[in-house]
Specification:
The chain has one domain: Rossmann fold, CATH 3.40.50. About 45% of the residues lie in helices and about 15% in strands. The chain contains eight helices and seven strands; from the N terminus they run αβαβαβαβαβαβααβ. The chain is globular.
Length: about 250
């Protein structure tokens, strides 16, 4: 019986209450849902976004959960902004435990119609900004007992879709960066995960995939629940990547 009990025992241990998390792209959609779930769990949150009016509204709403909320607006396409955000968050809270790179852009266009400017902006926001945020955050995360980075990618991080060349390339870049980062910081106690959903019922998907029915897609709350699971699970088993599909889509496609 003791042997059986040992086999059934879980090594998972995670208490995120009182931790500090930075979530980018948190004024709406998936980012807002993640921020709300974190606040529900007692996590103090810094929220990033490029539109101040949406960000301030989100900060006011999230403060109702009784946690400390810090709004840090900025355009992640600006190479200076990621470092500024990390410094502002650490100065405000005194530490950083969790970084969630959720911000992203997607502007559909055919291969031939994709401009250099559109390509560069997708790369700047979807790939370069997470790289810079991670690079600046790592020294502070090394001091945390619950250091975690979660990068929100997409099914296009390993698949290709027509009219999404810049978005697809940027998410492939994010996937590659995440794999290297996870290996380099694991022995510093920093866990790095990637969540790769297909279509999620957000404003963005109405632009990129207007053919999908919202009723068939996961909600931002579904993705937020997955993030909370990853943060609360801190056992000997490590989950590197979670792929998420809509219920109407066939498995393994």
């Amino acid at each position: 019986m003791n042997y059986l009990n040992d086999q059934l025992k879980s090594t998972a241990k995670g208490d995120i209450k009182g931790k500090v998390a930075l979530i980018t792209g948190a004024s709406r959609g998936i980012g807002y849902a993640i921020a709300a779930r974190l606040a529900e769990n007692g996590v103090n949150i810094a929220i990033g976004g490029s539109f101040k009016e949406y960000l301030n509204k989100a900060a006011k709403e999230l403060s109702a959960y009784g946690v400390n909320v810090f709004a840090c607006p900025g355009d992640l396409a600006d190479v200076r902004v990621p470092a500024m955000i990390i410094q502002d968050v650490v100065e405000y809270f005194g530490k950083l435990d969790i970084l969630i790179n959720n911000a992203g852009i997607a502007a559909p266009a055919s291969f031939e119609d994709t401009s250099v400017e559109a390509w560069d902006r997708h790369m700047a926001v979807n790939a370069r900004a997470p790289f810079l945020l991670c690079r600046e955050a790592v020294p502070y995360l090394k001091k945390s007992d619950h250091a975690t980075i979660i990068n929100i990618s997409s099914v296009v991080g390993y698949k290709g879709y027509v009219n999404q060349v810049a978005y697809t390339a940027s998410k492939h870049a994010l996937m590659g960066m995440t794999k290297v980062l996870a290996q380099e910081v694991y022995h510093d106690g920093i866990r790095v995960h990637i969540v790769a959903p297909g279509g999620v019922a957000t404003d963005m998907v109405t632009v990129t995939r207007p053919d999908l029915a919202a009723a068939e897609m996961p909600t931002p709350g579904d993705i937020a629940d997955i993030v909370i699971f990853l943060l609360n699970y801190r056992g000997n088993a490590v989950i590197d990547e979670i792929n998420v599909r809509r219920s109407s889509n066939s498995p393994w496609k």
